[in-house]
Structures are given as structure tokens and as C-alpha cells.
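User: I'm putting together notes for a lab meeting next week and I want to include a structural view of one of the chains we've been expressing. I don't have a solved structure, so I'd like a prediction I can at least talk through. The sequence is below, exactly as it appears in our construct file.
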Amino acid sequence: MDSLITAAGRALALGDPLGALNRVALRDDPPALALRGIAMAQLGDLPRARVLLRGAMRGFGPQEAVARARCAVAEAEIALAARDLGFSAATLDQARGVLEARGDRLNAAHARYLEIRRLLLVGRLDKAEGALAQLDPTPFPPALRAAHELVVAGIALRRVRAQPARAALARAGRAARQAGIPALMAEVDAAARALTLPAARLLTQGTQRLLTLEEVEALRASTMLVVDACRLTVHAGGTLIPLTRRPVLFTLARALAEAWPADVSRRALVARAFRAKDADESHRARLRVEIGRLRALLRPLAQVQATRQGFALQPLEAADVAVLTLPEEDALATVLALLADGEPWSSSALAMALGASQRTVQRALETLAAAGKAQAFGQGRARRWTTPPLPGFTTTLLLPTFLPGD
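Assistant: Thanks for the context. Below is the predicted structure for the 406-residue chain, given as C-alpha cells.
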């Protein structure tokens, strides 16, 4: 490998894409194309970066398996940055296998981190943790150690564990400063700022206040009976009852919790849970059935008592009842939460992350665009959606996850 290629590679490792391009911008040999592609990716021109990397892969011969595998890993990283979550996991795994077999353990570890980050984006926390447990960051260079700690912090944030997230981000900050890469330091700083922003809103007996993630964690460990509209659960004293697959039951539980200690009329419950303006006998019968199901599920934590007008929630041990909601509630809040990371998302990637149909996501995006909350660029399959982050709020609790396990 000639000196210009070596120098360009070192510049890229230090986060200096312009320095790398100064050395290889006019060259079209495969190593130069690969380095140019990585430089363009660091500069944000992801489509051009993909073209250059694919050209480099075609230029490398069959005997240059390691170089081809490195290009495949770089292209997977670009796909992740472009929120193209449909990139071939099999191709990435194959490239990782080649790198491990040829002794390139650093790039092999980088490939594994890419897969873990993809799992984290789509809320597969258990799988992400399992894959992360197979990696020991101790022998890695600072940049890769920072990437490891960012993943650890991301999982902790999704699990609503503020202290482990804070500790991981502190380690990531030290590693990023040691690496001396400005973009990496900025990424760590942005993640750390999320811990200081409001993550949820607490409603209790007609009052409301914003909570940080650390306060949300303390609330989850308290004895207060909380109906969590962020995660669609009911919890108190360490006992958690998921209602993610029971939206009607959750709506009833939230209505009863918001009214506590008062009751809620049957007419109001029918209107809220079934969206019916006038309650007839069929609605009242359905309400009795759903209230019976809710009683059975909440039995470890509370009773649902019938009153003269309707129903009331009565906690068994908790002294107070509250509702935990998003900082800003919006019918399309989950889509906004993903867009708020500042990265360009395709509608297919959003659908994959949210577990919804692509057409449903496209309608949501069109609604957000009409309201000025989202914007698109590109045409056809290259179309991407983005929006500036919501000022003053963190979106950690809005991001997709599968509870209690995935």
C-alpha cells in the first residue's frame, strides 16, 4: 500500500475527511475509491459514498477478500446512518466472518457494533444486549471503545436506567477525547444532554409536571400506582403489567387513573374507549366485558370498583395514583420521535422500526409534512424524511421497544 493511501487512511481514522480527500481525490484505483467513499460519508454525502464504495468492491479482485469485506462493512454503516434498516444482515455477518477469519478483529468488532445499533434502533433490546455481551472493549482503540459505551448507554436509556447510562456516557466521553475525533465527541455530548431534558409528564389529581429520565426511573421503583402511557404499562412497587397488546384496556385504565380518586361514568368510558357518542346496550355490555378483563389483569395492584355512575380505581397498597405521559402528546408522536434524531429516514425504515405498515407510515408522514413538522427530500425510493429535534425535550421514552421482553 503506497504512502498516500496510508496517509489518507490515518486522516479518516482521526476524523479528517478533507485531509484524506486531499491525498486521494484524483485517484480511481480501488483502495482510493474506498477511502473516498468513507470520506464522503463523513462529510454527509451518503449517496455518493455508496457509489464510491460499490465501485471499490467491484475493483477488488477475488483474492482481496478482506478489502471487499471492509467495503461491505462501510456500506452497512452508511445504510445505518441513512436509516436504511433493510440492509442485508446476512451480507454484514458474512463480511464479519471473513474479517475474523483473516485476523482483522477490529473491523470485525465494528461490524458487530453496526448490527447491535440496528437492533437498538428497532427496539430489540434483548438481542442487542446478548450480542453486546460477546464483546470485550478493553483491547479496542479509543474510538471503538467510545462506540461500545454509546451502545451500552443507548440500551440503558431504553431500559430507563439513568445511572448506568450516565456512567457509560462518561466512559464514552473519555474515550472520545482520547481518540480526538470531533464528530465522536459531539455525538457523546448530544447523548449526555438527553439525560438533562424532560423525558415525560406526570399527571396526578389534576396537576402535572415534567420529569427527567432519572426521575422517571425513581418513579418506576416507587410504590405509586402509575399508568404509563409512554410504554403502555401499569406498574407499582416493582410489579409491571404490560398492556401493549390491549389498547382498549389501557385506555380504560388511563381514564380511571386520571379521574382518581373520583369515578368515571359509564358514558364517558364508552366514549373514550369505543369512540361512541351515544352508549347503547351493546356498548354497555362490551364495557362490562372489558372492565372484567381489566379487573383480572390489575388484580395484583388495584381493584376496579363499580359505583352508581360508573367505575373507580382503588389501589391495593399504593397511596397515590398517577399517569405518566409523553412530554408533548401527539397522535403521531412515535413517528416524530424517530425523525427527531436528525437523521434522514425512509418510510420503509420507519415502518420497520415501528412495526407498522409502510402505507400507514406514509400517511402519517404526509400529515406531519402538511403540519410543517416533517420535510422530505429526494424522489422515489431515494426519498428521505427528517425534522429538527423537538426543542427542550428528549425522545428516549418515545422510541420503539418491546416490553417486558422482545
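A couple of points you could mention at the meeting. The mean pLDDT is 84. Residues 201-325 form a domain with the Arc Repressor Mutant, subunit A fold (CATH 1.10.10.10).

User: Perfect, that's what I needed.
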